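Most newcomers find our protein records easier to grasp once they have seen one. The structure tokens are whole numbers drawn from a learned vocabulary of backbone shapes. The record below serves as our worked example for the rest of this section.
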Amino acid sequence: MTSSLARTTALIVAGALAASAAHAADLGVRAPAPMPYVAPVQPYSFVSEIRIGGSVQDPGSAEGKAPGFSTANVNGEILFAKPVVSLDPFWQAFVPRPTVGGSYNTGGRTSYAYLGGTWSIDLFPETFGRRVFLEGFFGGAAHNGYTGPKSGTPYGFNSLGCSPLFREAAALGFRITPQWSVMATVEHMSNAGLCGENRGLTNFGGKIGYTF
């Protein structure tokens, strides 16, 4: 008796579900739209993002024009998870991601390593769906370039005055997926007039990034 009742109940439920599905189809109910793109907000590990790329070494300067020298740099960068300083999202947005990186010049000219913070902001998130972003970096860089007097500057080098230098950088980026992004970059290093010489370096390039 109990078994017969269970089978009857199951048949009734299955029939009801089938009828509901058929009714929905008759009404032209569409499948749910795919979820909109959402960029990563909180990284899943201590390392937030890794980046690799390249740049042109200070076009127009001795390091960028010298015949027989390469102007190409190869860069790598690690951005760490943003520390939680405030529970208020507004103030937390001003906290940068700690950043370390380096650039190797393939022509034997100035290479450097840097440390600082990176600030990121989405540009017109409602219009671009949080895919387009702008970044700024500020920190310091240690280099192997020339720091002596301008009169003794070796051929193909800029007179940078001292080491370390201040480093500022900016990037305009596009998120291809929540994990992958591409960026156009510009960076400048100088000593802000604190040393005898201050030719500095200004490099232009691009990077690809992977967010964890």
The beta strands are 47-56, 72-80, 97-105, 112-122, 132-143, 165-175, 180-190, 201-211. The two ends are 58 Å apart (CA to CA).
